[in-house]
Amino acid sequence: MKFFLPDSQDLVDPSFDFERERRSTTRQRQHDDLYAHEVFSTPTIDGLLVSKGIVDGFGATGSRYTQSQRLRLLRHGAPRFFRLERAPNALKLMGDCGAFTYVHEEEPPYSVDEVLEFYENCRFDHGVSLDHVILEFNPGADIPGGKNIIDASIRARQKLTLERAKEFLRKHKAGRYSFEPLGVAQGWSPKSYASAVKSLQKMGYDYIAIGGMVPLKSREILMCLEEIQTVRNPATRLHLLGVTRTEHLREFARLGVASFDSTSPLRQAFKDDRDNYYTNGLKYTALRIPQIEGNSLLQRKILSGQIPQERARKMERACLEAMKLFEAGKHTVRQVVEVLLEYERLCDREQKKDHAGAYEKTLTDAPWRNCPCDVCKELKYHVIIFRGAERNRRRGFHNIWTFYQQLRNLGLEATNTRQETERPTHQWRSRANG
Amino acid sequence: MPNELILPAVEVKQAPGRKLYCFAVDGKLVHRFAAISRVSRKEDGGLHGYQRPEVLSHIEGIRDYIESSSPMVPNAIVLAFDSRVRFKAASGVTTTPYSRPGVLIIPLGRDEQSDEQKPGFVVDGQQRIAAIRDATIRSFPICVTAFITNDVRQQTEQFLLVNSTKPLPKGLIYELLPRTDAQLPVQLHRRRLPALLLEQLNLDPNSPLKGMIHTATNPVGRIKDNSILKMLENSLNDGALHKFRKLGSKEADIESMLELLRNYWTAISRVFHPEWGLSTKQSRLMHGAGIVSMGFIMDTISEHIQSTRIPTDLQYEAELQSLRPMCRWTTGEWDFGNGQKRKWNELQNTSQDIDLLSKYLIAQYRSRVMHQEKTPHRTSRR
């Protein structure tokens, strides 16, 4: 089973000095920074998923790219832009539209032609057809007579997604594009997903992405996959868009899932309340030592004079110092937890969260000391500190690496890999104008 | 530890009842006798203090500079002392009707005395003092101007007066940048190279842009300095000029950059001869949207002509000719396809419009080039 990491320009700056918290003044963004696949000496991903919505930005979701970076990506193509040659294993590139960025629109903001053009310029290996996400899920619709539960606007989204998939495949053939096309199945229940897969197979797709599953419970995902199984051709491979459920990967494989993508190992590092640091067994809570200027709540209190800035800075420093002493064996777990909680109370008077137990567990086990990955070996205890982007993102990279190890330990090798067709890489392929 | 500081100082009488004291002191000591009076509201709603909190990122910038090889901070910080601080005039030395030398005697508490007990307050320069306090250097003497008053109102007035100056116009800063090589704050540092290239393009007799860029000292220039800086930054970061930079170092091959820029913009001035050199009102080519978009075209063409390291003006010219028919810089309307039309003078200097125009021109250029290319060479991917 192949794991694709969705790109949103998550890079780390190798010049960052963790003791002084400074960067090199000569650092050039992106050029000098490193992607996850450049940080590790062993494989961490099988490929990247690049979304048009993330590259172009849409509405409130601003682009993660500058204007000149975006044009460079389209000029050079993704393999060169993402420096794939520096990864320890051969990586694949998949493109999609990033339908979640325009989920609240009536219609997708792109045309099929635009999407094909984008995939071709980026030189992806796989391209996902233009789709429109369905957020509703109601298995009751599958009970005889339950048809009318589902609103016409939701049905229209499935219809639109299938129509675009048809157009996408037709134009892909006519334009002799070199990437492999995937159709997208959207649905609101097991049977509606299955019928979408059936239609896509009929069109000629044998690699199908299942969309809109991010908010579903694992049980619901399995229900849908079981239903899809009843119509799936043996040669049809499935891709789960935005889903990681480590505990169910074996079942997914049995049900024809050949690949999936997910940002959760990365995002949990700095978005989750508890599970920030992955190990082969437990997930640990990272130790929060927020930057004074990065914490809006604290910043407001300082600006309004409720908290003396000096005191906040002293506590922040004391926390960092305590971690240093702990790593040197000169501080006990209790001592560190006390200092951390004191600063936490200052940042969050209401104390909505009590981290005492979680911090104790993290410090007692000190999991970073036993982790063989490149990030933990280099960063040591800094990897467990929940603070600025440089630390948090590296912890995310560690999570991706750990997750990938688990995936490989399951022994799920990708099924029925196809013969790779060689593709031209000259500047602009001449295409038969069909 | 002595319990008072005795410092050589000059007393200056400025106006009736107004005396100032100028002296030097090690910046590392200032926090021992001067507090920061932070603004806040008391329980009863009364206002207390006047200073804003430290801006850490600003302090980091100053600190980096102070830790560099030979820093200089010529501007004095301003302190207000209460009457516990005394001036003792020296005898038998030169004086003027308005100034006399002597010593200033500042009582020092213990290192840990509370802010209320300190005889001084910082009116101006708290970021500098904080940077010196945090810097990894033994000592750093600074100049101080002080006045003596027991009245918080006076301190607040002075605080407002010194902090209500107008910041320098950006254009002047950019024009001065190429003349400096000290360690500057990051955002200025990033603009130094573009500013240097701009200056050369504006001065060099062989430059097609000579005298055409509007700067503080060249107010007749037709193209805004910011349009050119943006175009240069884009190309330096992601385009044709990038390869002349050295990764991870300050060095750059300025000469090659200038040659490429001269060649390209010379070609622009020839191909778009009627539209070139007009005001931004008459021609959108001279406007932010036109300059930045044509900068992206420069990157696209340079990459396409891979035969030479730096394409010649004639090569650029030949490529640009294919775009001439669809450009609407001075009249008519652009047709961006998908029913998107835009009158020539409705193009704005916004990222959306620049995006629209750039993408359209690049797509047009590519489709033309693809028509001409009969036999593209093929190479394998990895």
From TrEMBL, chain A:
Name of the protein in question: tRNA-guanine family transglycosylase
tRNA-guanine(15) transglycosylase-like domain location: 154-269
Highest taxon in the source lineage: Bacteria
Lineage: Bacteria, Pseudomonadati, Myxococcota, Myxococcia, Myxococcales
Pfam annotation, one family: TGT
InterPro entries, per database record: DNA-guanine_TGase, TGT-like_sf, tRNA_ribo_trans-like
Region (Disordered): 415-434
